[in-house]
């Protein structure tokens, strides 16, 4: 199992969600985060004083998929949907996942990350 984590521009939230839905990725967690990378933010003038805004609002997506093939599909969809070509588009990271447990049923590992029977029938 692989956790795919992507940090992207706030305005790309809906595009990335739609791209993941189109490739049938389920179980997405989205968080609002602040950060900076090579972009290093920008300088803003407030009441005549320069203020450095180096922590910019971003959106973080977290998904867990079964294997590298699915991780690559998800990564490709995220990159395609999030790319503007400008600094600050974001990053995608992969992490190995040792264990997963579905709290409701106690299912573990691969069974815990696949859709539950009610979800497979279209209930999301």
UniProtKB/TrEMBL annotation:
Database matches in InterPro entries: N-reg_PII, N-reg_PII-like_a/b, N-reg_PII/ATP_PRibTrfase_C
Tree of life domain: Bacteria
Any one Gene Ontology cellular component term annotated for this protein: cytosol
Molecular function per GO: ATP binding; enzyme regulator activity
Extent of the signal sequence: none
GO biological process: one example: regulation of nitrogen utilization
UniProt cross-references to PANTHER family, sorted A to Z: NITROGEN REGULATORY PROTEIN P-II, NITROGEN REGULATORY PROTEIN P-II HOMOLOG
Protein name, UniProt field: Nitrogen regulatory protein P-II family
Species this protein is from: Parafannyhessea umbonata
